[in-house]
Structures are given as structure tokens and as C-alpha cells.
Design goal:
alpha/beta, Alpha-Beta Plaits, Rossmann fold, Serine Threonine Protein Phosphatase 5, Tetratricopeptide repeat, six-stranded mixed beta sheet
Length: about 575
Amino acid sequence: MGAIDRRLAAIMVADMEQYSRLMHEDEPGTVLAWQETREEVIKPTIASHSGNILKNTGDGFVAEFATVSGAVECSVALQSMLMGRNRDRPEGRHLNFRMGINLGEITVDNDDFYGDGVNIAARLEGLAEAPGICISSHVYDQIRNKVTCKFEDIGDTLVKNIADPIRVYRILCEPPAATIAEDGDDRGSEATMPSIAVLPFDNMSSDAEQEFFVDGLTEDIITELSRFSGLFVISRNSTFTFKGKKTLATDVARELNARYVVEGSVRKSGNRVRINVQLIDGLADRHVWAERYDRELEDIFALQDEITSAIVAMVPGRIEADNSDRARRIPTESMPAYECVLAAKILHHKSNKLDNAEASKLLERAIELDPNYAHAHAWRACVVGQALTYGWSSRDKEETLAEVQSDLDKAQALDENDADIHRVLAAIHIARNNLDQAQHHQHKAHRLNPNYDIVVVQSGELLTWQGRPEEGAELIQQAMELNPLHPPRFWGHLARAYYTAKRYDEAISAIGRIESPDTLQLAFLAASHAWVEDLTEAKNCVASAMRQNPDLTINSLMTLHHYAQEKDVQHFGDGLRKAGFTD
């Protein structure tokens, strides 16, 4: 038997995100990139911080350090260098790492090393969001006044195979500054992409009923800006939380993490409209551009495009939109039909039964006024689908889906380039388990409007159902960034992706962010607790779900999934059974 050595050490565990996908897509290239990174960055950096690699894993490593500060400083240096190297790699081929650091006792013999000190570091690594670093409270207490890092306390967290909760802190790593060419051409990565928040325009008209017109105009400007892939546009769900509030552009920029803020006002009188717009640098607190438009109302569509183009032209770097050939189409010749659709959108966003019914009436009226108004058909399908999803409709499900499909077929025939049409078509195909057809429309919707948080989150959902939950989780997190004040259901989508990826602790944490989880979310929560052997909490979740729906069974819950792969179906069913649900 070899010698056994027990010692206290700072342990770092790291692994590469999306390693399996990278290997599948380009095995030789990934192996070469990983070898170069290990030899040129990881090994020398660890050695320079008095560290020692205990073990190389297929996609990561375990290292120990003589000091806690050495481990933390090394991790920050590594992440900075790795993010810098990613700039030279194509999009989708980045090597992103998660890292966890713990201070604890490890046992080392001639063949292996083990102990809770290593296990906790591994669990911390799993909690980190690549590229990121999570540390235990033991580490934080040792280095909080010794290193120049910012920390985020993410609270006590239960992790697999560790009895007591662990206090976890996230190190907030700043990406290395992007290189800006002297001519102002922005060559940076997504971290330097200009971000814009469009605040709800103020209604300066005396007629309060025109509020929907003002809100709808704001929405259309957000949508048009979102067509530009060179811009990171904050979603309307986030910006509309500021509606009616007196706020400073600097406060909005800070809360929504936006560099630029668009403010405006609309005065509508008779057949004329006057719009004042200003673009503000939220960080520098200065006006970049302002303009007033006084037009006949019939010019509203050209006016919206003119405002959008002017804002984009003034953003530093003179962004050239990827989809510069986007259609400059006039959606309808009927101004009353257009106003009906604007009003219906506002009602839809309120997400309640009465407003849904009123929105449906308005969209019926819009289609009566202009039967060839594609966007009206798309939104009628969306509103009818909302009623079906939330149980506000007593109509037959298949009959309703057929009506929605008919509306969408009509809309698509009229306008192939409306993102909402393809978004709702994808949702219908998901509901019918036609995932190949769903993929076609979801891809089209995402391409048409890459900054639309509802489209992005649905792309993540679809990837989860297709058996690609790691990629799904990434897109769902991207949707959360697009909409920092996203609805709670986004956490449910993320939890489902984590569960499918067997990242149960993260699934539990995600659902924990939902104040009132629904039955399906409680089912995934119960199954997650069951897989980490916390059967007491699993049964509590089952009881909560049964209080919401006493008729809930494994069979009824299984009808709510849309997994394409049998192993994922089995995994969900086994988790429900293990948690205590009955057939």
C-alpha cells in the first residue's frame, strides 16, 4: 500500500463548457485548441501562482495551491487570458471554462486523491456560469480583503452528496477590454456590442384612449431595432416596467445594463402626429442625438423606419446591420386596422382572461378591415394560443389548434418575413410533437429577430426537447440577458434544461427563483430533489403539486413533455416515480 498524505489545500476544479458538442463538430480542431490552451496558458499560469495540477481530466483539470489567494488570483488570471484568446476563435468555437475553488482537507495516495475538499470544489465548479468562478465561504473569508475582485453572494446552496448547505460566492470577472481600431470600427466581442433600451414614449395627447397608440409605436421601434444583429436591444417587457415613472436615463442604463437609452413623446391630433425622440448615452449622461418629426399619420410606417435608422446611424462605431436588406414593407393601408393590432398587443401582454378576450375582438376587427394584414393574422393566432395554454378557452384543443394553424398559414402566405408568424408556428408544432417542423420555423424566427427574448427563450426550449439541454440552457440565459426583468416562466424553462442535462442542483436553484411555481414546474422540482436523494423535499413538492391539481398523475404529467429522445422521456418518468407521484 502506498503512502497516504492528508493535507489542507486550496483546490481548484475546472472544466470546459460544451466540450462534447465541440468535439462532435470538430474533434481534431478541438483537441488541438485544448492542447495549446493547456500548454500555453493553464500550466504556466498555475505554476506561476505556486500551484500544482493533481489531475488532467478530458475537458478540465484539478489543481491545488499553497495559498487561497494564489488559487483565486490564478483563476481570475486564467479566465481573463482564456476570454482574450476566444476573440481569435470563430463564434461557436470558444473554449469557455467553469471554475470552483474550495479550502479543505484532501487525502492523496500514490494512485488518487479524494475528500470533501475536492468534492465541494467540484460542486462549486458546476454552479459557475462559464466563463465564471464560484468559491466557498471558507475561501471568501480568507481572501476578501486580499485580492482586487468583486464578489456576489449567491447564498446557501445544497449540493449533491454534501449534507450541509454551502455558502457560495461568485467572482465577477470582467472580460478584457476589446481592441478598438483607430477609425472607431468596433472589433470587439458580444461584450462590447452596443446595448439599447427604448423607454415607453410619453403620450402628450389629451385623449387618454390614445395610450395604446403610443405604446404600440414604442413596441414597433423596439422590434425594428431588434432586426439589427449588431445591436443588443433590451426587450419591451423590461423597458415597459418604467412606464409612467419619472426616471433618469442613467438609472435606467444602470438597472437594465444598457449603454444607450431612447426616450420620446408622441402628440397625436386628428390626422397628424408629432414625435420627439432623443438618444442618450446612459453611462456618460449626455445627449447623442435628438430630432422632432411632424407628419401626416399615413406616413407612420416610413416614420418608424426613419427613426430607427437615425438611432442606429448615431451609435458609436457606425454599426452596419447584418440584415441591411430587411424588408421595408407597408403592413397595411388601413390605419384603423393598424391601431386595432397595436391595442391588441398591449392587452395581450397583460396576460389575463378578460384582456385576452378583448384583444381577440380587436384582432377580429383588424382582419375585417384588412383581410390581407399578415401581422393581424399572426397575432390572432398568438392570442388564441395564449387562451388555450392558460385554460381560458373551453373549446376543443384540436379544433382550436386547427384554427390557429389556419390563421398562421394565411399570415405566412401574405408575409414570409414576420418573426411572430414563425414563432407561433414553431410553438404549435412543439405542442403537436412535430419537432422537425418546429425547428424550421424557430430557426426562421430567430434569424428574423435575434434580439426578441420570447423567440430566443423558445429556441432554448426547443433545444431541450430535442435532447440538447446544455445548448438550450445557454439560449435561455441569453434571453434572460435580453430581458433582465424577464417573467418567472423563464426560470422554469431553464430548470427544465438543467434537469434534462442532469444538473439537478441548478434545476432546484432555478425553480427556487419562482414565487408560485405551477404544477409542471413543481413536478420537475420534485424529480430533481429525488435524484439528489432528498426524498423528504421531493414529497413536499409532490404534495404542493397535488394541492393545485388533485387529479395529477404521472400519466397526465407525461403528456406535457415534448421530448424527442426516449432516454429523456424515461429520465423524466423515472424522476416522477422516484419523487412519489403515482400512475
